[in-house]
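Researcher: Please generate the 3D structure of the following complex. Treat every line as part of one assembly.
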Amino acid sequence: MPEIKDLKEKARKLRMDILETIAGAGSGHPGGSLSCVEILIGLYFYKLKHDPKDPSWDGRDRFVMSKGHASAALYATLAACGYFPKEELKNYRKFGGMLQGHVYSGVPGVEFSTGSLGEGLSVANGMALGAKIKKKDFKVYCLLGDGEMQEGQVWEAAMTAAQHKLDNLCAIVDFNGVQQNGPVSKVKNEEPIAAKMKDFGWNVLDIDGHDIASVIKALDSFGSVKGKPAFIVARTIKGKGVSFMEGNPKWHGKAPDKEELSRALEEISGAKI
Amino acid sequence: MSEEMKATRDGFGEALLQLGRDNKDIVVLSGDLEDSTRAEYFKKEFPERFFNLGIAEQDIAGTAAGLSKTGLIPFICSFAAFWANAFGVFRVSVCYNKCNVKIVGTHSGISVGPDGATAQALEDIAAMRVLPNMSVVWPADAYEAAKATKAIAAIDGPVYLRLGREAVPFVTDRDRPFVFGKADVLREGSDAAIIACGDMVSESVKAAEKLSREGIKARVINMHTIKPVDKEIIIKAAKETGAIVTAEDHQANGGLGGAIAEVLACGYPAPMEMVAVRDTFGESGTGEELLEKYGLKDVDIINAVKRAVSRKK
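Model: Done. Output below.
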């Protein structure tokens, strides 16, 4: 069990890497990348069985990043794990570079390419069902965005996972409450999201998605209920850690300029943890 | 051409069952149409590898993508018309991720008849063949459907297999080889070449027989694989006959005709005519009535051949 303090420090570094990566590219999605930092830390530095030296190890747990626009967060996490040199983050979204604009499976450690919202949960279901058919004991994790849950396919997949008792699947929604053009509640309200998923037949937990201890506890409880897929509603803040980005839809898909980046990095590096 | 008739979906269903016996990695997903698509033959023998995911084409396509990444080979089965709902999933989850998923669309074309326009897939070839990594196969009879089913299972990558509901005459036989990506010349001829797919292959053979009585020798090519298309055989036909006619139970735009036109325009331009549906939806009626109204009968192919021949320089 890693020290919570160390994981918090990792989260701080990850936020800085994300912002530098997006600023370096001149484009990207800081809001939804910063909101899922603790979730990714909980997965990659605690829960997932994985081996950065052997990304295609057959026994690895599978992770599908359905919110593919938050690629900077996943790439920075994978670099921090050692899947590829951190230097590579400088080529994010650049011509000839490996790190494509949205989550791309050509990157070591990335399980599946995404970017058109709503598709990942079905894919994760397929991997979980495949594990059962092939009698493999790996687990499957899927990270969704809250705006993404407006896609109908997510609800088709929600029914499939419950119907086929995919208890080797854990889906997490980064519920930051803000989508590109405004609050989720004002665009197409999803609340009460936890009750909805419960009604769809999932074992649901509703947690503070920025509290690493809560994230870890929730991930650890996954597997405790037989015959049901697990769903974690991770309550988060879009743009978390940067005061001028927090909760502001403007920062959904815009890179900080030089001055904004240095202000943001200062805030994050100086924040108490 | 034999008198005996059988639907391509039947040839598929029997071959899928055999595949299930030969290969434990074959799994089947259905959009609650397994009785109609004939996937139920597989379901009865291998219920543990069969999943009816309900009326949810996007989810079926995505689930198949995930299954394929665990080493399984999913065949996903529904009506050709309904796969249109899953186009975005085919694009990103299946094709961009190079998933080994076999998409089976039965009840294709206007020949499906009484169910009317919404059930008559006439644009699926165009939609599927534009996707990178996707292959497209449309067998001409039940023997070929069975062989194609086995052949596509052996290919690593996404394939769309288009099938029909109605019984069609046999234009091949049990022993005729099926080679994915290589078209099959069913009849030689030097005055024109008819390149056809699916249920229009037998109409083309009929047309060629009638034309021969008028002294026009038409070659008949069964282009069972529309993507990757057999460029060599198309160019050869244009060079040797100087007149090309395509025939398909599908829109002219973007279908077999479109695929052949792309090859000819860039490779060896020749007079060409298309027998196909002309940018319109279908309607209810018997298959025969509709094929006649929308210009997909042997007589339409005959007229198209004559037009193409008259355009030769």
